[in-house]
Here is the input.
Amino acid sequence: MGQWAIFRNPYSKVMRCTARAARAAVLAAVAGVAALAQVASATEARVLSPQDIEVVTRVLQFVTPETTNTATVAILFDPQRPGSQSQADTLAAAVPPRAPDSRISLQAKTMPVTALNLEGVSIALMTPGLTDHHQVISAAAAGRRVITVSGDKACAEAQHCVFSVSTVPYVNLWFSRAAARAAGLRFSPALLMLVKKV
Here is the structure.
């Protein structure tokens, strides 16, 4: 029995070590999945990029009837959310002076969601973290021909944004027909062939 005990104890230790290693591997895998989930969540709430803005401002030339020679781009932010106004300022600086491939001049301004006034605005770009305000923004844009835009696909899916946009790794433009109709917008068939309807 004693000899069996000599062989059994080392074997048990090996098994215990193997079990601990397996548990550690499982925990590491779970942690990795959690980290990926956090990255995905952060991506959903990302800031619009200059490339996103370029894509969106190109949409102006497809609005029917045509947009006037000057278009106001409002960047909406939440003054209660840390960093939101800074993000809005950065987006405003990224708006080009003219819409690509058109004669439409662009004028950017920042606007807090606590003082929405979309009269005369052609495009309303949303900073991240405005999910709780999407419905209010949509209501403010109703009938004013405002192209509301978010980097969060869920905004278009909920019919609160006319467009949700992403240009990484390739261009995706999600279009809500219901939101466009509520805003009083119509687009040429050439654009509607390119967008993804939600």
Remarks:
- The longest helix spans residues 2-44.
